[in-house]
Amino acid sequence: MKKIIITLLILILLLAVLLVIRNLTQTEFNGLSIKYLGKEFQVKNKQLRNMERQVIWADDKKYDTLPLQEVLQQFPIKLENIQAVTLISKDGGALNLKNEELSDAYLALKKQKNELQLRLILPKDEFKQRWLKRVVEIQVR
Questions:
Q1: Model-level pTM?
Q2: Is residue 33 packed enough to be buried (19+ CB in 10 Å), middle (13-18) or exposed (0-12)?
Q3: Mean pLDDT, each 10-residue run in order, the chain (141 residues)
Q4: Contact of 125 with 80, CB cutoff 8 Å
């Protein structure tokens, strides 16, 4: 019985050490990551705040937004070559948009708990069921 308890304590201690090491080596980027043709571009939240915004209304709510096409145009991305875009949230959720939908896609800016959060808004979506909170990555294909 003593051997089992000692073995369990060693395993718990080892797991705790590994978690601490993982947290120390993991750096969290505070912004938006855009991946296109094997390259990764990063936009810091400060840069996003300085971009020209548009106010839109969706579901009777007012949103301070960045048009998704304008965000993508900040990088060497040819909009006419885009087939689809996948937006990924901080919790791992994902949403795909076709090229034709990009002109009606917006990233709403919301400051929450001293952190800028991005939310995908599609105001012309037929059933208003496609949205994504806390967008952190855009994959362009």
A1: 0.77
A2: middle
A3: 93 92 71 92 90 89 94 90 94 94 94 88 86 94 93
A4: no
